[in-house]
Design goal:
This protein is mostly helical and about 425 residues long. The chain has one domain. Helix content is about 75%, strand content about 0%. The chain has 20 helices and no strands.
């Protein structure tokens, strides 16, 4: 075979390139938008040496460490096994849904809201469908999204915008916790009440099936427990034809080694020390990168590098806008007089992470900004980009579980109606409480 015949036809190369670029853009819409915004801002402020001061390296380092360690624990199956064990202990549909939602809330405080949803939504889908409680999926997914976006606000590493603001304003842990205690308490109480109410509205089965089974609640509880035990016994395998193969549990977990668990626990502690400034961030980044390169390189590959690149683009965009006199003259008075409302409102349009990065350049009053971008995670689908993960998972359910396709209670339109109603109610309630104090 000649070299000419072995090479692909020249006409096909552009098509493949276009297809590859299109695939990348579909999977990284936010990064693409951030890159376009950063490039557009360069037309207003041409690149110069001041650009080097735009990047908050502590935030990028903190985010890398948190994402890398969380990825290592997830790939080992530590989070998944713990979540399954927790859910399997609860005996009724209502308490099972509550366990799923509260476990999502707890994980968001350790592994960021995005990672919590990526780990817990597939578990919720598998558990409820196999337990005969599929009709509880819309309420469960909506409450899990609220829990991930709002309950992680209590710690600096619970949400990406918190890591940034904690570093940018050089906050202390005490003042951070004092500021976020009230909105966190109100949001958590709301999530618990909302979950308990929605999960108790039915067992999730069609009426004719419920009437056929006289035990009702106890039958649903037994099915839930059985599904959880089957899932726990099989670890995190995705061999079942009903298992969510297309959801982001992309690789089989490694054996749960005590040595690896101890190593990853030490790296997590090291990361927390660096976030709380008890240790230089450079030391933590080097330790995490070197340890994972030795222990499990998949964890480094699984880091959300697109999120880090998105942050870099946001830094350029916000830094350039801060140097535009007209923008500063417009935003600075608004933030001074209505910081909480502006922060929460901007999050509804551009999402809370870019809102935090942008608005931080126009105010020294970090308290209303911090609270605003956190409660702004509720509201629209764009309020927190983690909400788009929930929507993506829900729309994938009929493909993964074909039996759900003809159920009118599981349509995307009904889910969006419930999701938007709950989020709007939480945003309005949290704004009312925070403005009143």
């Amino acid at each position: 075979m000649t070299a000419a015949s072995a090479s692909p036809p020249p006409a096909r190369m552009p098509r493949r390139l276009v297809a590859a670029v299109g695939c990348f853009l579909r999977g990284h819409v936010v990064l693409a938008v951030a890159a376009v915004a950063a490039a557009a801002s360069m037309a207003l402020v041409p690149p110069d040496t001041a650009y080097l001061g735009y990047f908050d390296l502590k935030t990028l380092g903190s985010l890398f460490c948190v994402l890398a360690v969380a990825s290592a624990l997830r790939l080992m199956g530590a989070f998944d096994r713990a979540a399954r064990a927790i859910v399997a202990r609860f005996r009724s549909p209502r308490t099972c849904v509550m366990a799923l939602v509260l476990t999502t809330a707890a994980l968001s405080c350790v592994a960021t809201n995005d990672m919590a949803l990526i780990m817990m939504l597939p578990l919720a889908a598998f558990t409820l469908v196999r337990g005969g409680l599929a009709r509880l999926l819309p309420a469960t997914f909506a409450c899990q999204s609220l829990a991930a976006n709002l309950c992680g606000m209590i710690v600096p590493f619970g949400n990406p915008q918190n890591l940034y603001l904690y570093s940018y304003f050089d906050l202390g842990l005490g003042e951070f916790l004092g500021t976020m205690a009230l909105p966190f308490a109100v949001a958590t109480a709301g999530v618990v009440v909302c979950t308990w109410w929605l999960a108790g509205k039915g067992t999730g089965r069609p009426a004719e099936e419920q009437s056929a089974e006289r035990d009702g609640e106890r039958g649903g509880a037994a099915a839930v427990g059985s599904a959880c035990r089957r899932a726990d016994a099989s670890g995190s395998r995705q061999d079942s034809p009903e298992a969510p193969k297309s959801l982001p549990l992309e690789s089989r977990p490694m054996p749960l080694s005590r040595r690896r668990l101890a190593l990853y626990g030490a790296l997590l502690a090291l990361t927390m020390l660096a976030v709380f400034r008890a240790l230089p961030m450079t030391v933590a980044v080097i330790a995490v990168a070197a340890s994972l390169a030795w222990a499990d390189r998949r964890a480094l590959a699984a880091v959300d590098w697109a999120l880090l690149a998105t942050f870099a683009c946001f830094f350029v965009f916000a830094g350039n806008l801060a140097r535009v006199t007209e923008v500063a003259a417009w935003l600075s008075p608004l933030m001074a007089d209505h910081g909480l409302i502006v922060s929460a409102g901007a999050s509804q349009v551009i999402s809370n992470v870019p809102a935090a990065v942008l608005l931080s350049h126009f105010t020294d009053a970090w308290q209303p900004l911090l609270v605003g971008v956190n409660i702004g995670g509720a509201g629209t689908l764009v309020g927190s980009l983690a909400s788009l993960i929930t929507l993506q998972h829900f729309t994938s359910l009929p493909r993964i579980f074909p039996a759900l396709r003809d159920d009118p209670a599981l349509t995307t339109s009904r889910f969006l109606a419930l999701f938007c109603t709950l989020n709007a109610a939480f945003l309005a309630g949290l704004l009312a409480v925070c403005l009143a104090v």
